[in-house]
Structure formats: structure tokens, C-alpha cells
Design a protein that fits this description.
The complex is a heterodimer of chains A (333) and B (325). Helix content of chain A is 30%, strand content 21%. Chain A has 333 residues and is of the alpha/beta class. Chain B is an alpha/beta fold. Chain B has 12 helices and 11 strands. The longest helix of chain B has 18 residues. Classes of the chains: A alpha/beta (333), B alpha/beta (325).
């Protein structure tokens, strides 16, 4: 059996009445990239924060390379923090403006002998394409793309087994996004860390991920190999999500018909009964409203779907073809 | 086609604490009747400043030169009364974040009615009825109940629909949409793009779409103007621009977006090295030269002008694809 960098079992994270994450099970193999996609409020960032243990889960277990870290104390956590790092969306907000870049990047090594740190910092900066002199600068002197490189250098300096990248390119311009995505791909290949790539940007997912997990309202609705999810998605929500993301090609884009789901995302305080997606699903039937769909492995290995309407072989309704449901939220005719 | 909105040699400079800042440099644009013109570029390219200057929304620290005419009426330097009669009525705006543009203490029905009563002089009842019509038009179900909702009771997508309903309340000639879907999720975005498309088709509204998202451009635009460091560097019909980008910056932007079916194992995204310059004044040079793989001496010593024709490019060494005859 392949060794796992991360095992998340039935993860639950409630904030008071808000059921942000409600039973997520996820595995990441050593050295592979799993993208966690979903829209605002789906709970994807909360999953990331539980994994690096910025949050203590309400229930469930999180194992890093086999070790249970679910309820470790702050002290105990310190050791595990070296094994897992996080990069956030907004590098301006996550880098402390009072420290120099060198201090920020070297901070995870503060338990090491002092003398050895500067060399490690230079090496880490070089690896992310920055000159070692940048170590003496303050974060605000750098551009957004450079700051994100600093965050990445800091995250990787302790040689973690797992990197959680939470929307690492969403605040950046397209051309800068490209260089950060290229960098992450290079580093991941060279250093071999596992990565949970949290994003809503589907084109970046296709570029970077080996596997894709799709979240909706605190739960995973589908997960599987990249080619399968992008080529033949089974869950109606995955299908709708993929059809809605516009592609930068006018001829192709205009031939597509996005599945419109309606604007009202149900609340995580009082999620819908049965399948949580039924209120927006164009093909929902009675059972969807009452019975919670189980996660089942269908078709090829590693492809799991939680939908009543998907058959054992992975076939099922395709909401992209279900005409008449389209544009029901568009302009009244 | 006679342009509804014509921008000629528009320049905008700001006085800032760090001195002058040139944000827009001699930008010329035309928007035809019922046309969707996308203005594309990255942060700091001047696309939003251009949009704001179209109806005098810039702060006092801005110096604006050039000309903006709407159906023949000059807007630059126009007095307050002229501007007030044009804003909202002839030119309407929608912004990225609908929550900050809506007043939280009034119902959405009240806010739409207010527009109608102020600009068109409808009475309370007629304004209310028209508000319901407008909300239905932008795809809000059971609009007759929704008009009593406060902004916080609506989802982000619904709020943006309300903003659009308000913007088109007076049947404006031109709708300026500044990153209208950037704050929204893709499944919501698709609906908003649909509404804009339908407005253009049904009401013939011209739309200036300000965006950084090439997917949104590909979906909605008829024509595209690409901006870089305050200048328009390329403009063309949308299919032509994507198939046949001529400016190295446009080509770089297109190559930088991950395409379907591409994975890092076998493909590499094209990067544009360097940073967008922050300019105190516009140099007599191509502002993209120091990041451009095709730059030569002439690029740093002389500013390229836009070529004439339907596909215009400001570049000394344009990328000529063999597609062209």
C-alpha cells in the first residue's frame, strides 16, 4: 500500500450553529497534489485550517504520515508543524510587516542553531526564484507575486511532508499567477511534498492537481483522478461547476451552455435535508430531498460520488444536457 | 456603426503624496450602439480609472484631459447639472462589490424606486410597479416579494442583479460594468453574464465591460481593448484578438492562463517577467519594452502608435501569425 501523507476521517468542524465542515474524508498520497475545490462557503478553507491545526476539529480524525494530530496540544503541535505548512491567499496579510523577509522565512527554523539559519534562508529564497538580498527587505517593499514567493519559501523551509495552499494565486494578476503556478509545480516535482491545493479556480486545478475533491456546503460530493473529474464528472454539482467556468476562447465559450443553478446558496446553519445540493440540482427527484446519499466508489478506482442518481458504473444524468432546466434563473422571457 | 460613446485622447494624472502618477495616457475608445466593448488588463493598467472618468466619478486629485462624448455631448469639463442629468440616466455603472453600493438601511424596492422617481419623475405607485418589472427582468424570482427585502437578506448574486436592475432602470444608453462578476462564484457569475447578454439583446444597451478575466471577455465581448500601463496597446474584434494576438503583452496574457486539458507535467504556462511600471509621466517609449521578449532599441526610444484599421496594435514588432494573408 502506498504511504499516505494525510488521512482525514469524517472531519466535522462546527462554529456554534454553523456546520462549516460536516463529515469530510480525504486521503493524500505521499508526493501527490489533491485539489479541494468549491465555492465560497463550501468549507474548503476550514478543512485546510483544521489540517494544519489552526483549528481544533469538533470531531473526526486527522493523521499526518500516520500520526494522529487531531487533538494535540499547542506544545505537542510544535513538532508536527514542521511536517505541515500553509500558504494563504493574501501574502500582504500573512507576512508580518514588522519583520524582514529573512526573519519571516527563517522563523520556522528558530529552534535550530542560529548560525545555520541565514544559509538556509538564502537557499529557500533562491529556490523560489528570489535573490538572497531580498532577505534584508521588508514585505511591503515587494510586489504581490514576490510576497507570495516569500510565503512559499517560508512554508517549505522546514521541508514539510504536506503543503496546504489556500487560494495561493487568487489575489494575483494572471501573468503573476502563471509564474506562481509554475513555481509550485516545479517545487512539488523537485521536493516531492504532498499538497492540498484549495481553490475555486478550475483552470489552475487542471494544471496542478493529480486528484480533485469537490466540496459543497461542508461535504465532499465527488472526488477522483483529474482526468476523470474534468473529462467525465458524475455529480450534477461538479458538472454544473465545470460548465459555468468560462474558458478564454470565444468560439469555444460561446458554444457552451452553462448550467445555471440559481443564486440562493442554502445556509450552513440549516443545510437542506437529504442531499444538500437538492435545492439547486436541476435533476433532483424525491429521494434526494429525504435520504442523504452515501459516498460510493464507482467505475474506476479512487472515483467516489455521493449522488443517488449516479449508477455503479459511473453513468448517470448529465445536467449539461438536461435542457429546459437551463437559464431558469436568467432573464425572464 | 455610429459610436454612442466616444473617448478621444483621454489622459488622467493623479496628484499623490509621492508626486504625480500617470494612470491613463491618451486612451481612445469607441463603443457602438448595442455593442459590448471589453477593456482588459491587469491591476494598475488604468482600466478602472478610464471607466470612472467616463462620467466624472474621479476624485479631485485627478487631472483629466481629452474628450469623452456621449451621443455628441461632451462630458469632460461638463458642469454638475449636465453630469447629474447624464449619470444614472444615460450612463449607468455597476461595480464589483454590490454590498458596498447598496444602502443597507433601505429595502431594494425603495432604492430602485428612488432612481425612477428622481430621474424619470414616476409617482410612488408607478415606481414600485416598475421596480418589480425590473427585478423580474434581471431574473429575480418572486420579485413582488423580494422588493421588500433589505440588501443583507439577499445573496451576492441577487445583490448584483439588484444593482443591474437599478443601473438599467432609466434605460441608459451605456452601461459601464466594472468587474461585475469578480466577487462572485462561477455558478453565480454565469447567471449575471447571461443577464448582461440579454439586456444588450433586448434593450440594445451598449456595455463597457471592465475586467481582468479573459474567460468573461470570451463569453460576452464583441470587441476588446487591451490596456497596459495606462495605454491601449491593442484593440480588435474578440475572435480575432484571441486567435491572432499581435501585441506581445496580449500574447503573453493569453499564454499565461491555463488552458483546458493542460497539466504541469507536459505544459508550462508562459510567464511575463518583471513588473508593471508605475509612471510619473509617460515616456516616449513602449512601456512594455523592459518586459518584452521582442524589444529592440527603437522600443525604448520611441513610442509606438496604434496602427489604423479594425485590428489595431501599438507595437514596433507585432507578433504576426501566419493566419493573416
Amino acid at each position: 500500500m502506498e504511504s499516505l501523507a494525510l488521512e482525514v476521517e469524517d472531519l466535522i468542524m462546527h462554529f456554534g450553529p454553523v456546520r462549516a465542515v460536516d463529515g469530510v474524508t480525504l486521503r493524500i498520497k505521499q508526493g501527490s497534489v489533491v485539489a479541494l475545490v468549491g465555492e465560497s462557503g463550501s468549507g474548503k478553507s476550514t478543512v485546510g485550517r483544521c489540517i494544519v491545526r489552526l483549528l481544533e476539529p469538533t470531531a473526526g480524525t486527522i493523521r499526518l504520515a500516520g500520526a494522529d494530530v487531531t487533538h494535540l496540544s499547542r506544545r505537542q503541535l510544535r513538532r508536527h508543524r514542521r511536517d505541515v505548512s500553509i500558504v494563504f491567499q493574501d501574502p500582504a496579510g500573512s507576512l508580518d510587516p514588522r519583520f524582514s523577509v529573512g526573519d519571516i522565512v527563517g522563523e520556522p527554523l528558530r529552534l535550530m542553531r542560529r548560525k545555520e539559519i541565514p544559509a538556509k534562508v538564502s537557499e529557500a529564497l533562491r529556490r523560489v526564484g528570489l535573490r538572497p538580498e531580498v532577505a534584508h527587505r521588508a514585505p511591503h517593499e515587494l510586489s504581490g507575486g514576490q510576497r507570495q514567493r516569500v510565503s512559499i519559501a517560508r512554508a517549505l523551509i522546514s521541508e514539510p511532508r504536506l503543503l496546504v495552499a489556500d487560494e495561493p494565486t487568487s489575489a494575483l494578476d494572471v501573468s503573476v499567477q502563471a509564474s506562481v503556478l509554475n513555481l509550485l509545480a516545479d517545487l512539488q516535482r523537485d521536493l516531492g511534498f504532498a499538497c492540498l491545493f484549495i481553490t475555486h479556480d478550475l483552470s489552475a486545478v487542471e494544471y496542478l492537481a493529480d486528484e480533485v475533491a469537490v466540496m459543497y456546503l461542508g461535504q465532499l460530493v465527488e472526488q477522483g483522478p483529474r482526468a476523470r473529474i474534468f473529462g467525465a464528472p458524475s455529480h450534477p454539482y461538479t458538472q454544473a461547476l465545470l460548465s459555468a467556468a468560462p474558458v478564454p476562447d470565444p468560439a469555444e465559450q460561446r458554444a457552451r451552455k452553462p448550467v445555471l443553478l440559481g443564486d440562493d446558496l442554502p445556509s450552513a446553519i440549516d443545510p437542506p435535508s437529504g442531499c444538500r445540493f437538492h435545492t439547486r440540482c436541476p435533476v433532483a427527484v424525491d429521494i434526494c430531498r429525504t435520504v442523504v446519499p452515501e459516498r460510493r466508489t464507482i467505475g474506476e478506482a479512487g472515483h467516489q460520488v455521493a449522488c443517488h442518481l449516479v449508477n455503479e458504473d459511473g453513468t448517470g444524468p448529465d445536467v449539461r444536457l438536461a435542457d429546459g432546466h437551463n437559464r431558469h434563473q436568467g432573464v425572464a422571457r | 456603426m455610429k459610436p454612442v460613446l466616444q473617448v478621444k485622447d483621454l489622459s488622467v494624472t493623479f496628484r499623490t503624496e509621492d508626486g504625480m502618477l500617470s494612470a491613463v495616457d491618451r486612451v481612445s475608445l469607441e463603443v457602438g450602439d448595442g455593442e459590448v466593448l471589453a477593456v482588459v488588463g491587469e491591476s494598475g493598467c488604468g482600466k478602472s480609472v478610464t471607466a470612472m472618468s467616463l462620467a466624472g466619478l474621479l476624485p479631485r486629485t485627478a487631472t483629466v484631459d481629452g474628450s469623452v462624448t456621449l451621443d455628441g455631448t461632451e462630458l469632460i469639463g461638463a458642469d454638475k447639472r449636465t453630469l447629474r442629468s447624464i449619470r444614472g440616466r444615460e450612463v449607468a455603472y455597476i461595480f464589483q462589490e454590490p454590498m458596498t453600493s447598496l444602502n443597507p438601511v433601505f429595502t431594494v424596492g425603495h432604492q430602485i424606486s428612488e432612481v425612477l422617481r428622481t430621474h424619470i419623475g414616476l409617482d410612488r405607485q408607478a415606481a414600485q410597479a416598475r421596480a418589480i418589472e425590473l427585478l423580474t427582468l434581471v431574473g429575480i424570482p418572486s420579485a413582488d416579494r423580494r422588493i421588500n427585502d433589505y440588501p443583507h437578506q439577499l445573496s451576492g448574486g441577487m445583490r448584483q442583479r439588484v444593482m443591474i436592475a437599478m443601473a438599467v432602470a432609466c434605460d441608459p444608453k451605456v452601461l459601464i460594468a466594472d468587474e461585475p462578476t469578480t466577487a462572485l462564484d462561477v455558478t453565480i457569475q454565469a447567471g449575471i453574464l447571461d443577464v448582461l447578454r440579454e439586456l444588450r439583446e433586448r434593450l440594445g444597451t451598449s456595455i463597457v465591460l471592465i475586467t481582468h478575466d479573459l474567460g468573461v471577455v470570451a463569453d460576452l465581448a464583441d470587441r476588446v481593448a487591451v490596456m497596459y500601463a495606462g495605454r491601449v496597446v491593442e484593440t480588435a474584434e474578440v475572435h480575432e484578438l484571441f486567435a491572432n494576438p499581435q501585441h506581445p503583452y496580449t500574447a503573453g496574457l493569453l499564454g499565461a492562463s491555463p488552458a483546458a486539458g493542460r497539466h504541469a507535467e507536459t505544459h508550462r504556462l508562459s510567464e511575463i517577467p518583471g513588473l508593471v511600471p508605475v509612471l510619473a509621466e509617460q515616456p516616449d517609449a513602449c512601456t512594455f519594452a523592459d518586459r518584452c521578449p521582442r524589444a529592440t532599441e527603437v522600443c525604448t526610444s520611441s513610442q509606438p502608435e496604434l496602427t489604423p484599421g479594425a485590428h489595431r496594435v501599438a507595437c514596433w514588432h507585432p507578433v504576426r501569425e501566419s493566419v493573416e494573408v
